[in-house]
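Chapter review: from sequence to fold.
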Amino acid sequence: MNQILADLLVAMMMEDQRLLEQLFNSGELPSESYHPRMKALHEHNASQLKEIIGTHGWPGVSLVGEDAAKAASLVVQHSVSDPEFMDECVSLLEDAFAKEDLAGWQFAFLQDRVLTLSGNRQYYGTQFDVNENGWPTPFPIEDFATVNERRARLGLNSIEERLEQMTVQDRKRRADIQHPG
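The token string follows.
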């Protein structure tokens, strides 16, 4: 395992999550537009990930370990300023999944994110929006009748179970906001 790469990728993920939390806590997120600090960090991280991929290929579990492989998938998912890079990584993640070098959900999330960002229907049902009442709802899904079969092949729970998880999380978040502490 390449510990230096692993540490770099995990540090990138931690900084991403730290900044996200800071912007939420300050009330700067959610926002109608891409927050400039978040955008700058995402672009910086994407640039570093491109260098890693150029030298080592996709940083899967065998190269960097499970946590860092997860971090790499988060970095590419947040590379929304560079949809071409995200699209190129879909096949890299698909290959890594086929070699059991990353978790199926990592491939599914990126595949669906690329599809929804380009205005297409997602395939695995991993990308959600909020409805007019503020509740999570999946973006349109290609061939909805078989989505749970596709999800199961990648180790994901059913779309109904995922929606329930997200609804419970959202209810808890709303309760915490109304009754802090």
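Two observations follow directly from the output. Helices lie at 3-25, 36-56, 61-64, 66-77, 83-98, 104-117, 147-153, 159-178. The two ends are 42 Å apart (CA to CA).
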